[in-house]
Amino acid sequence: MAERSFTHEVGKLRLGAGEEFRGEGILAVTKALLQSGVGYVGGYQGAPISHLMDVLSDAQGLLQELGIHFEASASEAAAAAMLAASVNYPIRGAVTWKSTVGTNVASDALANVASGGVTGGSLVIIGEDYGEGSSIMQERSHAFAMKSQMWLLDPRPNLESIAAMVERGFELSEASNTPVMLELRIRACHVYGSFIAHDNRPPPFTLQDALDSPTRDVNRIVLPPASFLHEQEKINRRWPAAVEYIARHRLNEFLGGAAGEVGIILQGGLYNTLIRALELLGLADSTGDTELPLYVLNVTYPLIDAEVIEFCRGKKAVLIVEEGQPEYLEQNLHTILRKADIATRVIGKDVLPKAGEYTGDVLQRGVRAFMRAYAPEQLDRATPLLPPPPAEAPKEVQALAPLLPIRPAGFCTGCPERPIFTAMKLLQRELGQVHISCDIGCHLFSILPPFNLGNTTMGYGLGAAGAAAFNAPRNKRAIAVMGDGGFWHNGLTSGVGNAVFNQSDSVLVVVDNGYSAATGGQDILSSRADNRSKSTKHPIAEAVKGVGVKWLRVIDRTYDVGRMRDVLREAMTTPEKGPKVVLAASECMLNRQRRERPAFNKAVAAGERRVRERFGVDADTCTGDHSCIRLSGCPSLTIKPNPDPLRQDPIAHVENSCVGCGVCGEVAHAAVLCPSFYRAEIVFNPSGWDRLLQRLRASVIGFFQRRAERRRLRHAF
Amino acid sequence: MRSEPRPISIAVAALGGQGGGVLADWLVAVAELHGWIVQATSVPGVAQRTGTTVYYVEVCAPPRDPQHRPVLALMPVPGDVDLVVAAELMEAGRAVVRGFITPDRTTTVASTHRIYGITEKSAMADGIVDANAVYAALQSRSKRLISFDMQVLADEQGSVISSILFGAIAASGVLPFPRALYEQAITQSGVAVKTNLAGFAAGFEQALQRSPMTSLVPPGSGPTTDLGRKIDARISATFPAHLHGLLQQGVKRLIDYQDGDYATLYLDRVREIPDSGSYALTAAVARHLALWMSYEDTIRVADLKTRGTRFNRVRDEVRAQSEQIVYTSEFMHPRFEEACDTLPAGLGARLQASSTARRWFAPLFRKGRQVRTTHVGGFLLLYAVSGLRRWRRGTLRYRVEQERIGAWLAHIKSLATRPGGYDAAVELAECQRLVKGYGDTHARGLKNYGVIIDAVQRMSDRADLAAIVKRLRTAALADEEGRQLLMTLDELKVAA
User: Is A126 exposed, middle or buried (0-12, 13-18, 19+ CB in 10 A)?
Assistant: First the structure.
């Protein structure tokens, strides 16, 4: 079960011709796939495209009706390899992932499929995780399109354009026998909007048809001499076919005015931001109407030379609005114009930043600088809606910036991964600092406050491989961390198998929370839940032993901080050779609460006896040192002003959002902290027996408490 | 270019889990119910896990010509935001810093409550950011500011902060939608409709009042017993008026901790502090001496844990309903040291020094214990320990702490009487703040305190001694490992 249920969204996928689809950008893509007669869909979850996967995963019924095969692939490479089904057969296929990280993983298969070419339309939908909200290295997917010669679509970020471009993308792919990439930025994936739907189409040629009568063409396989043929084909046949299709169907748009000395060429995905910038400068209205000629590249690779020349001819200068670096488009424009001997100046990253997201503010400044230099009269004629921004922020604003507390991502309330790192921190008190190789997943939050643990992260599933070099004679071992998601993605081979084969002496902690938690709680091979359409419950421990690990410890309750620390200590100090694997397994609390909380509330409402546990801090005994927080960082463990008029430091405080995971108490014990923590068991709908016992206890305790209270009052101030 | 209506832009800043997404959904719904065009987007991802997310919504009247729909932006542009909604005070501050709040355009709807950042929480003393600076900036940068503690209101209504914010947005009048449509948006979403509507109404009403931030001035209460009146009379007769409140708190605490004689000892000690006209030193000693003299030994902890008032406080804190039963387990980890501390001084000291005894009793103290104070056995155990109070003066811990206090006061007095040493004495008095907590935490604090005392003695002739002590104290609170303190000491040595 994914984090959210998408039953409501699945309903939207059934809309027919003429009906209005309302929802997120990435769901519009999903709907458009069904309208395009897609035969199969695969992918690997990750923001910002997770919802595409999650919705299809919940849409099994609909997919079966249409005869579409959906696969939650083991990795992006596995997803990309699925496109092999479109090589020999006229079957449309789509795969999706987060980019550039996913494209990195997929590029082996992508390069192969792009080399041999495709018969059926092949669409690679990539969530370009760039700019604000991104969680990965800042790179462009553009380079992958160029190196493998796949076409890259970058539609205007409204649902109508996005959905249309899905269908056009398949046609382009078929017209040029080339896989096509459709790039959507984070905000475009999450944008709420609407478009008019078409009917869904079952694939005209099905996977079953292919299996019934397979065909093969040795020239589509990447092996000499065909591989040399492929390169010639790309240049001499597929490229011209693509250019012809793109130009004929006007995939790129010429908007704005026709005349003028200057114009703007832009990536389609930046259209809305650019229009807002123009509007604020007084150069466009709110509907995007402008005198400035705009050439909107809904296809950013390849560029159509004839269109570029047509747009630039007669202009003094054009501004190229291209996000990220290197500035491939800008370079390409220069080449095209130079060869055509057109003198139009190309201005890009001279007035716009060389790196970083192009926000409304950035584009406003860039366009103003461009216009000031090349069309000053036009700029002066315009009435800007905003005064030019001051060179620097007002004093009170500047003073504020350093004050504001940072808010790094952290473990959720009750997260089972927290105690693993608490234990590691406690162990470091005994062993000194340890080199820690991290991975991708929620557990990577260990590198941030308050844990500050971890040296490097080399990619998904590569935590163990990242520690491989440290297999040197020493008295202190390195620790590698890997999640269950990364483990099945590739860590089993690149990490565990690699360590066994190379007789690595390092320690690997595999965090098994039962889900691919960071990407939205999707099931994976080792998930312990039942899943109607997938095979789960394949234990990681079996796989680890299967590849030859001898030293394995399984902790099935990570909240036991003391035990966790003891096992880690053993792994770090045992004389035994070979990789030492600690499997730390407790269910992701976010998913557990999603399941258990409604059930608890239902039972309580029905009058059943239930006990809720949560923790608290005694304001009286807490002295405000916050050691507990430095070993935890739980969102529900916070501070509040000290109620004691003499004490000045804020006290620790547990909020009612506490789920009673028990880490606070375990930490207080393991680290010998303080006696301020208490666990409260709140009995809902107590039984008669409960009430009787409670009355008895209260009468004894109350007697002594009243006696003590009387004495205190007598001897009070 | 035509003159089509401009969209109204709304930025919602919320922390993960605060329901910013729900609020954005409601805004979309209310705009659509009104027949307006709406677009919303966000950049969730890992930020959802305790980070900040800005949800951005634009609403626009339908165009006169349906062929010319507005092009709506996907992110706020500084200077071009009509409404900023912040579900926490610092996030409102962040909106100011990002330029989203500008005096000529922006109405700000912000909750003034705090969700502390990890650096504020994990500081070794008081790391809380100055809220007044943020509030002042909000006031000066907003065209209109609607702010109050919305979390408290949400708790009162049994609702969530997003419903209060939604009510305040409706009341702000920035969006031209009638109240009924907002309520319809909540109703049709179908989730926790009753409490969300209650929260909405409360937020709406409160926003109309535009209440300012409340400031807190807790008044002290006078003595209640003959003992108290006697001691209070002494305070009034001996000390200047502006110290009375502080000293009352001090004696109140120490009577509660031990008895009237102990409070008298406290006043005797404060009385001996040589002071100039400012009484800054007396005030500092009065505060920190009371805290030190009420050091948290096992007797004190057992006493505080077994009180009836404490039981009621726990019930309140966990929000137990009257018919529910609450059981508590205390997480305690007494060590061999604490046991010796509670014994008569002679015996305790001998045992503590004996490695054989330590080895013998070690298994008893290896593990932490959970004591169920709401059960008869656990309660009586702690109650009995709290009863050791009357023998406290004979315990090892008492002897040790009184010696430490005596030495501390002697340092302060000797510094204060030295020419130019007064300010340094005040700073040294403040150093009691380092010695707090239990177990390892207490040991670490004590060690740092000792390092500073040594430094003070070495550098007692330095003219800038006060600044040095303050610097060392701050350094001691910078990290657990004492790295900053060592570095500062080195720097001072080099400078000397």
Answer: buried
Tell me the β-bridge partners of A128.
A99, A185
Residue A1 confidence class, pLDDT cut points 50, 70, 90: very low
Dihedral pair phi/psi, residue A298, rounded to 5°: -75, -15
Q: How close B461 gets to chain A, by Cα (Å)? A: 30
Residues of B with CB below 8 A from A614's CB?
318
Beta pairing partners, B478: none
Q: Do the chains contact at B1 and A285, CB–CB below 8 Å?
A: yes
Secondary structure, 3-state, B444-460: HHHHHHHHHHHHHHHCC
Give me the residue label for tokens 């991104």. A134
Write out pLDDT tens, residues B391-443: 999 999 999 999 999 999 999 999 998 888 889 999 999 999 999 888 888 99
Helices (H) and strands (E) in chain B, counts: 23, 8
B319-328 per-residue burial string, b: 16 or more CB within 10 A, e: under 16: ebeeebbbbb
Set of chain A residues whose Cβ sits within 8 Å of the Cβ of B33: none
Residue B153 has pLDDT above 60, yes or no: yes
**Residue A267: both structure tokens together:** 């990536």
Write the CB contacts of A359 (distance below 8 Å, at least 6 apart in sequence): A131, A132, A273, B75, B77
Cis bond before residue A405 (omega within 30° of 0):
no
Neighbours of B6 (CB within 10 A): 16
B375 to each of A621, A692, A701, B380, B387, how far by Cα in Å?
A: 20, 13, 8, 9, 18
Determine, for residues A712 and B256 on separate chains, whether the beta-carbon distance falls below 8 Å. yes
Taking a C-beta distance cutoff of 8 angstroms, is the pair A460, A439 a contact? yes
Distance separating alpha carbons of residues A711 and B227, to the nearest angstrom: 13
Closest CA to B146 of B207, B102, B88, B82: B207
Q: Any CB–CB contact under 8 A between A638 and chain B?
A: yes
Question: In chain A, how long is the greatest CA-to-CA distance?
Answer: 102
Indicate the SS3 state at residue A420. helix
Angle at A67 between CA A64 and CA A69, to 5 degrees: 80
Hey, of B6, B22, B27, B43, which one would you mutate to test binding to chain A, going by the most A CBs within 10 A of its CB?
B43
Amino acid code (one letter) for A508: L
Place of tokens 């430094």: B455
C-alpha to C-alpha distance for A686 and A249, rounded to whole angstroms: 71
d(CA B339, CA B331): 16
Tokens of B261: 């004689």
Instruction: Tell me chain B's radius of gyration from C-alpha atoms.
Output: 29
Phi, psi (deg, nearest 5) at residue B24: -60, -40
DSSP code of residue A453: -
CA distance A121 to B434: 69
Which pLDDT tens digit goes with each residue over A454-485?
A: 999 999 999 999 999 998 867 789 999 999 99
Residues of chain A contacting B436 with CB distance shorter than 8 Å = 623-625, 649
Query: Exposed e or buried b for every residue in A27-56, given b needs 16+ CB within 10 A?
Result: bbbbbbbbbbbbbbbbbbbbbbbbbbbbbb
Rounded to whole angstroms, how far apart are CA atoms B110 and A245?
A: 52
By the 8 A CB rule, do B420 and B466 touch? no
Cis amide linkage into residue B63, ω under 30° from 0? no
Q: Is A200 helix (H, G, I), strand (E, B) or coil?
A: coil
Question: Does residue B2 surpass a pLDDT of 60?
Answer: no
- Which of A405, A690, A702 is opposite residue B325, by nearest beta carbon? A690
User: Does the CB of A271 have a partner CB in chain B at under 8 Å?
Assistant: yes
Each residue of A162-219: pLDDT tens digit? 999 999 999 999 999 999 999 999 999 999 999 999 999 999 999 999 999 999 999 9
| Tokens matching residue A16 | 């027919």
Starting at the edge strand found earlier in the chain, the sheet holding A345-347 runs: A253-255, A294-297, A262-267, A317-321, A345-347
The pairing of beta strand B325-332 with beta strand A677-684: antiparallel
